[in-house]
Amino acid sequence: MLINVPQYLDVEDKVAGPLTMKQLGWMIALGVILLVLWNMMPSVVFFIIGLPVAALFTGLAFFRPYGQPLGSFVIFGILYYFRPKIYVWKRAPQREQIEHKDPVVETAHLADKKMSSQSLKSLAQLLDSQGAQYNKNLEEILKKPVAKK
Fold it and tell me: pLDDT band for position 145 (50/70/90)?
């Protein structure tokens, strides 16, 4: 059975023509505010105050800086301004620490561990049998100190 997987999940549904629910809400709020301003103020003052209000609400409805709505962009800006900032201090390297010194190469010479043929056979038998045939002498062989030259 085939099931259709929805695509374009980030696209909002259109409610009234090309407007989404948020855009329609901002436009209705703009209309209500302009109606109140029209009834309360003379026409010259209405145009002086109404044009910036209309520009603000139109921007809130349609402008999307950096792919997010202007309303959330403004809210994040206000939160950034009022929240405390956290600074992480990283110590700058001092000049004494920066000076290059000749690298000292230390080499460790490991002495070869010499094993007898009997101990090698015991180890091979243990590995071939995947631990089933355990030789008690093998522990002693492995714990033997390293033979020095």
Answer: low
